[in-house]
């Protein structure tokens, strides 16, 4: 894990991010990264998108959003998406990426980071709880709203 680093999402890395593999059953919880990248260029540009590299290989992607003026508290500092390649899962890649996002939120003077997730057998709930997010509510669509105080 000491060889992990972050870079901004770019034209050079988006193809590799879109090609990240998933474990069976995880695909129902993920939309293509290119959707997130497209959303990031629509004003206001509040997205924080990074790829996780292990050496020169893309092994993950994280998309955070910072909009301290959002009327909805859960969208002021939010983890919108995290993808870790199936072969890299369980090795600390996701934890590394989320901790970097948490540090970015702290540097911006924010005191809470939120995330939405769907419950399901192969879903991300166990990971988010392990990181320290705690459920604080639910969306009208049944997604869990999780938060971690910084």
UniProtKB/TrEMBL annotation:
Family matches, as InterPro entries: Acyl_CoA_acyltransferase, GNAT_dom
Listed SUPFAM superfamilies: Acyl-CoA N-acyltransferases (Nat)
Record key words, sorted: Transferase
N-acetyltransferase domain: residues covered: 4-150
A GO molecular function held by the record: acyltransferase activity, transferring groups other than amino-acyl groups
Keyword Membrane carried by entry: no
Pfam families: Acetyltransf_1 (PF00583)
Keyword set includes Transferase: yes
Protein name: GNAT family N-acetyltransferase
